[in-house]
Design goal:
By secondary structure, the protein is of the alpha+beta class. The protein is 32% helix and 23% strand. The chain folds into two domains: 52 residues, no CATH class; 160 residues, tt1808, chain A, CATH 3.90.1570.10.
């Protein structure tokens, strides 16, 4: 059991704790997993943030994730989808869960494995972050330390693609993991959900990705 009682934030809300040691983080992470709570926990050098995603948050990242998976399917690209898996390195005192994460370029190195360890294995090539009630910008230092190459971030209005350059992320006009998809392409298809059903939208998306394959 954890040394202190930590309440679970309500959906769409978050809780910040300072001065948390790694053992307490691991304990809270395990308790949350055992309870089946859909809580994202970010840990960075003693600062722990617990966030309960809202329904809209889950809706958006699931649809972006489905677009990624459809693109890899239509382009016959190997992919290892690991949803909101926990990524952590005790030696760096950093840990988090992405909304969605994928091995694409490095998929052969981790294919079918459930024992991925970022001390010896590469990090995901692409992660998705949806910022509706909290900002994922604070997570960028963690992703950079872990070596994640690309982030797709949706802020509630538009999508940005970010590429790791040195120790910082910079905006890019086209995905490196899934070229030639651009942020505007994701936004255009997300906007369709206001007037079209999902089956029709993903049928259109599949048709579109087939047409742009290089």
């Amino acid at each position: 059991m954890s040394a202190i009682s930590i309440p679970t934030p309500a959906p769409g809300h978050f809780l910040v704790l300072e001065g948390v040691d790694w053992e307490l983080y691991e304990s809270v992470r395990q308790e949350t997993d055992d309870a089946g709570n859909h809580v994202r926990i970010t840990y960075d050098n003693g600062r722990m943030v617990l966030m309960s995603p809202s329904r809209k948050h889950e809706w958006v990242h699931a649809r972006i994730g489905r677009m990624i998976e459809m693109a890899t399917f239509e382009w016959d690209m190997a992919v290892y989808s690991l949803a909101s898996s926990t990524w952590k390195r005790r030696d760096l005192a950093k840990a988090l869960e992405a909304d969605e994460c994928y091995y694409i370029q490095n998929e052969p190195k981790v294919r079918g494995r459930d024992d991925i360890d970022l001390v010896r294995d590469p990090p995901p090539d692409l992660v998705v972050e949806v910022d509706l009630t909290t900002s994922s910008r604070e997570k960028e230092t963690i992703y950079a330390a872990l070596g994640v190459n690309e982030i797709w971030r949706f802020d509630g209005k538009r999508t940005a693609f970010l590429k790791l350059r040195g120790r910082q992320y910079r905006s890019i006009e086209e995905s490196e993991a899934l070229p030639p998809i651009a942020p505007a392409d994701i936004d255009r298809h997300l906007a369709m959900f206001q007037t079209m059903n999902e089956t029709a939208i993903f049928r259109e998306f599949a048709k579109w990705v087939r047409s742009i394959k290089k």
